Amino acid sequence: MNTAAKLSAYGVALALVAGGGWGVGTAVGPFSGPAGVHGAEGAGHGDAHSGSVAEAANTDQPGGLASSRGGYTLAPTSTTLTPGKTTPFAFRIVKDGAPVTAFDVEHEKQMHFIVVRRDTAGYQHLHPTLGPDGAWTVPLSVKDAGSYRAFADFTPARGTGTTLGVDLAAPGDFRPAGYPPSRTSTVDGYRVTLASDLVPGRASKVTATVTRDGAEVTDLQPYLGAYGHLVALRGGDLGYLHVHPDGAPGDGKTAAGPAVSFVAEVPSPGSYRLFLDFRHGDAVHTAEFTVQAGGNGS
């Protein structure tokens, strides 16, 4: 079901798993070595300061389609996961054959690490720890077998925001999940409703409203410098779009709920999976949506 190509630099192994499901990628090509490219350019945190992903929209190529971009390579020490078992996951960002050790802080973190199965099940937003040798480590556990995509979203010191992606494999019986269009998500007793439409090639204001037990939540807590954190993944190739709220805590005009607004710009028509992280009750909750951009749907 999968093919692993072992590389010598830092023990890198890249597993390309061809499996069924909503998000099996079509833009992941052959890996030619540390300087090779899987896909085309994409935008990371540093490309989306105003809540848009203009670079991705202009090129029709979101982030995360490549394991290498602009001379930087995402190099994990292993690409095999064991379902149900938590293990330290390690990787480096490599440039010119050497690990990068200096990163800028974007949204309160130097590295945002996203892991999701290729059918978009099991979404996780993690923040690894950087060692002096350039190795990032984070405890990682996946519940079920399948092919996963990992995204490293970072800004090198004095560099440009970048998102790189790599496939991971969790052996076992894989049964892909399906996600019909949905603008309402129920998570941990919260009900989150998404309003507005995604219009390809144009900035779209998207608003999420958070309620609990039928009452509006008006005391959301800041998370990563905002009242909400939204990641969008494009169907078919899991192109990665990172958008941010329209406003910030403490700016004198942004309320702490129940509504959190974003400005998003998707590059093409089709289905997108949206993951909204918000913090309330001293815990982070993740609401999931499936939205159609352009044409009929949702």
Written description of the protein model:
The chain has 298 residues and is an all-beta fold. It has 2 domains: 2-170, Macroglobulin (MG2) domain (Immunoglobulin-like, Sandwich); 184-293, Macroglobulin (MG2) domain (Immunoglobulin-like, Sandwich). The protein is 2% helix and 41% strand. It is built from 1 helix and 21 strands. It has one helix spanning 54-59, and strands spanning 2-6, 13-17, 68-69, 72-76, 87-95, 98-99, 111-117, 124-126, 129-130, 135-140, 146-154, 162-170, 184-187, 190-195, 204-212, 215-216, 229-234, 240-243, 259-264, 270-280, 283-293. Strands 3, 4, 5, 6, 9 and 10 form a 6-stranded antiparallel beta sheet that branches.
Helices and strands in order:
Layout: E1 2-6, E2 13-17, H1 54-59, E3 68-69, E4 72-76, E5 87-95, E6 98-99, E7 111-117, E8 124-126, E9 129-130, E10 135-140, E11 146-154, E12 162-170, E13 184-187, E14 190-195, E15 204-212, E16 215-216, E17 229-234, E18 240-243, E19 259-264, E20 270-280, E21 283-293
Antiparallel strand pairs: 1-2, 3-4, 4-5, 5-6, 5-10, 7-8, 7-11, 9-10, 11-12, 13-14, 14-15, 15-16, 15-19, 17-18, 17-20, 20-21
Please provide a brief summary of the model:
By secondary structure, the chain is mostly beta strands.
What labels would you give this structure?
298 residues, mainly beta, Immunoglobulin-like, 2 domains, six-stranded antiparallel beta sheet, five-stranded antiparallel beta sheet, 1 helix, 21 strands, 2% helix, 41% strand
